[in-house]
Design goal:
By secondary structure, this protein is an alpha+beta fold. The chain contains 25 helices and 22 strands. The radius of gyration is 33 Å and the shape is elongated.
């Protein structure tokens, strides 16, 4: 090893010529992953630092369907230093009267005089919240987000209604300190005083609302406080949350988005790995005589392998250091651009964990892509010292190196899964990248074979430039493989994102109205159901109406194991309260996958029908038990059957349907879906809102558009990540073009000697670049279309239609990228004098 290091050190004195592409690819890949990790770490620090403000206190007690009883409230007041009570629900905000009225769904928060315990509410104009919510000209004040006020046509000082209670708009809400810690809402926020809602008719028995008690605990240990609360409210359906997990939805989104972007960054590293491999191979091509000479002098193959492995190791370390420096600096530039989109102040700093993660990825990727060409140096024999490396260094390395390479790939996938918030996402991404690289490698081989045949085809005789371009593409030294691999992977991601984004938008604009209801109505009281249905039965524009009783419940245990301790504790069914219903008979269209429905007159112990997909994810089977808490009462039911639940239609769907007896007597309301012609939607909403002001109507199209906006944001983030991959791919293209410049100089000299013009030579160079780009784009388009079809079909469960506009953009992008890279390095070959070049050849 001492001899190997001495030789490696001496060769490194020659500088980094030939390794700029190596360093650039590694630096970009590691830098991208380190930057994403640093931003994620800074956001996590901000959530931890400002957790109490985001939550609205040190801790929160959440109750569903009810306020605390006098005894419970007395205990809470004695337990905490300070308490704030807030009721949260959705309702319809109405402005105006009669046919000229405007209405829109809003997320209402009723607060007491101590709100907010921490932070401050932002209002425009800037007035104290107490003043904004005080009585004004005989009406209580209220504040709402500007978008809601504009939707209703309200100005400051105008009157609006919640239920049957009128309020006067006193300010626009610009900042809600605890807004990020709240549940997802279907409408903009409105804040009023809780006591002003007493006569609004919105908080009746069974109405869907939550009451949150925010607590200041004056430095008390949160774990001890949680245990005390759980002991006091055991079985009362009270949920605890503290400042350590103030905004779980935000936390989950950030974890998943950052994990996804890191995995996309790994795809970029894979592209860079192609450039790394090409750079190492090109470097070793120039060391053929050195390797053969060392073998002639008695050097063993393992010594030579160690020499170049040490050199690559030093350069890899340099590339990783540069990448980590880039990843540490970039977040400082990005922070001002994303600060307004985040719930916390972003203080960028160094995050060792993120840097170590990026360094591990970089080291493994470099080793995977350099081991193969390094191992083939064993094939160089001293006897062919003057024949060139291609004579013997082609082919496959020995099997131990192949096994080591496969082990390293497996190790990289396992490390990615260990770091990712969703391990299955890591495995899926790794499988996709490996599969895409395999397809692109086969495509590159196929392109070379087809180009070789086309160059010899009679049909191309007389088309000299095109034949020369085809001949060059078929040459292994031309780098068609590197071009198609590096450019193709980035274009594949872009193609898939473009197809998915366009299909989602098309589904919302065209498919959804055919499948989904027009409105989703909530909080229909039992006494209102007949009148509600009578209004819709008389309307010829209504196709059908579906209704179901609805309660909210918290799943507290599975098979006797508390939900928080169950292996499936992270499942979405267990994270919050869930809607449940009851039915004596099997609902029409329900398909059972296991078990059987109970008899219509069943009156035994509670039974429940559970969603088959959700049960499989949580490890539940027929015969298992589920304990739910409804209005403070625990009910344990046996799973009688499993059934398919389709949420994609936007209609009524419940994970849990129970036998009627346990919950029918509990206060509850009904929900309804209304399928109607779009032209009649306005009249339906106006009439039902006027008849029953407490009913909340959610327009399914608007809700779906909000989801689409969120998905489009993800698509935009992915597109930027794909552009980063393309940047790495473009570096590889430049490296391949630079590596082939000497060959093109000689080629141009020979062609000039044979009478070719500069225009003809340039045309040949341009054609080969454009054809390789078109090949990369076409293959990427096929792979991206297949991936997007799979996502739409199996993940989104929606129809798929090939979109031509983004498809054409992908192919054109591939052509332009390779054409630009190729032509930049065509200038020197065109300018050389043939005599000087040919005279220098042996």
């Amino acid at each position: 090893m001492r001899v190997a290091w001495a030789i490696a050190r001496r060769e490194l004195r020659g500088g980094l010529r030939g390794f700029w592409v190596f360093l650039a690819c590694l630096t970009l890949g590691v830098g991208a992953i380190a930057a994403v990790g640093s931003v994620r770490g800074s956001i996590d620090d901000g959530l931890a630092r400002e957790g109490a403000t985001l939550l609205g206190g040190d801790a929160e007690l959440r109750m569903t369907y009810r306020f605390a009883t006098p005894d419970e409230r007395e205990w809470i007041d004695g337990f905490a230093t300070s308490v704030s009570e807030a009721v949260d629900f959705r309702s319809m905000a109405v402005a105006g009267q009669g046919d000229d009225s405007e209405r829109s769904v809003t997320q209402v928060k009723g607060v007491d005089a101590t709100y907010p315990l921490l932070g401050s509410v932002g209002l425009d104009p800037e007035i104290p919240l107490d003043q904004a919510l005080a009585m004004q000209d005989g009406l209580p004040g209220g504040v709402m987000e500007r978008i809601l006020a504009e939707r209703l046509g309200l100005q400051i000082g105008d009157v609006f209604r919640l239920g049957v209670q009128e309020f006067r708009l006193s300010a626009h809400l610009t900042r809600e300190p605890d807004g990020m810690g709240a549940n997802f809402g279907f409408g903009p926020r409105t804040i009023v005083r809780s006591d002003a809602l007493q006569n609004a008719g919105l908080l009746g028995p069974g109405t869907l609302y939550e009451v949150n008690y925010r607590l200041l605990l004056d430095g008390r240990d949160l774990d001890q406080a949680r245990r005390a609360v759980n002991s006091r409210f055991d079985g009362a359906g009270v949920r605890w949350r503290d400042s350590r997990n103030a905004a779980p939805q935000v936390q989950r989104v950030i974890e998943r988005v950052s994990s996804f972007l890191v995995l996309v960054g790994l795809a970029g590293l894979a592209v860079g790995g192609v450039g790394v491999s090409a750079a190492v191979r090109s470097y070793l091509d120039g060391k053929t005589n050195v390797i053969a000479t060392l073998k002639t002098l008695g050097a063993e193959s393992r010594t030579i392998l160690a020499v170049y492995l040490m050199q690559i190791g030093v350069l890899t370390a340099l590339g990783i250091v540069l990448g980590l420096a880039l990843g540490a600096i970039v977040p400082f530039a990005v922070a001002p651009l994303v600060a307004d989109q985040l719930p916390v102040d972003l203080h960028i700093g160094l995050h060792p964990g993120a840097l170590v993660e990026a360094a591990i990825y970089g080291a493994l990727t470099a080793l995977i892509f350099t081991l193969w060409p390094l191992a083939r140096t064993e094939n160089v024999r001293a006897a062919v010292i003057f024949r060139g490396i291609d004579a013997d260094a082609q082919g496959w390395p020995r099997w131990p190196y192949i096994l080591i390479t496969l082990a390293l790939v497996g190790g990289l996938v396992v490390v990615a899964a260990a770091f990712a918030a969703v391990p299955m996402l890591a495995f899926a991404t790794a499988g996709g990248v490996i599969g895409a690289l395999g397809v692109l490698a086969l495509a590159a081989l196929g392109v070379r074979v087809l180009a070789r045949r086309a160059a010899r085809a009679r049909g191309l005789r007389g088309h000299t430039a095109l034949r020369m371009a085809m001949g060059a593409i078929s040459n292994p030294r031309e780098g068609a493989g590197a071009v198609i691999l590096s450019l193709g992977l980035g274009l594949t991601v872009l193609a898939a994102v473009g197809q998915i984004d366009n299909n989602l938008r098309r589904a919302i604009s065209s498919d959804l109205p055919d499948r989904a209801p027009s409105y989703f109505f909530l909080d229909i009281q039992n006494t209102q159901l007949d009148g509600f249905l009578a209004r819709l039965d008389d309307d010829d524009n209504v196709d059908r109406v579906e209704t179901a009783p609805m309660l909210r419940a918290v799943v507290t245990a599975l098979n006797g194991i508390p939900s928080r301790d169950h292996p499936a504790a992270g499942h979405w069914v267990l994270r919050g309260d869930r809607g449940i219903t009851y039915s004596a008979t099997q609902p029409e269209g329900t398909r059972l996958t296991a078990g059987s429905w109970w008899d219509a007159d069943y009156s035994g112990p509670p039974l429940v029908s559970f969603g088959a997909e959700q049960a499989a994810e949580m490890g539940l089977r027929v015969g298992d038990s589920v304990t739910i808490n409804v209005l403070g009462r625990d009910i344990t039911a046996e799973i009688a059957n499993l059934r398919e639940v389709d949420f994609s239609t936007g209609g009524i769907g419940f994970v849990m349907v129970m036998t009627p007896d346990p919950i029918r007597a509990a206060p509850h309301t009904h929900i309804a879906t209304v399928y109607a012609l779009e032209a009649a939607e306005g009249a339906i909403l106006r009439d039902l809102s006027n008849m029953y002001p407490n009913i909340t109507a959610i327009r399914v199209r608007e809700a779906a558009e909000r989801v689409t906006e969120a998905l489009s944001t993800m698509a935009t983030a992915t597109s930027f990540a794909a552009l980063a991959i393309l940047l790495t791919g473009f570096v590889v293209l430049i490296g391949a073009a630079a590596a082939g410049e000497r060959a093109r100089v000689f080629e141009a000299a020979v062609m000039k000697t044979l009478g070719a013009t500069r225009a003809g030579i340039l045309t040949s160079f341009a054609l080969r670049s454009a054809l390789m780009g078109a090949a990369a784009g076409s293959v990427a388009l096929g792979a991206g279309a297949l991936a997007s079809w799979a996502v739409m079909r199996f993940v989104m469960e929606a129809s798929y239609q090939f979109e031509w506009l983004p498809a054409i953009a992908v192919i054109v992008g591939g052509v332009l990228a390779t054409l630009l890279a190729g032509l930049v390095f065509a200038l020197r070959p065109l300018a050389v004098r043939p005599a000087g070049i040919l005279r220098a050849q042996d």
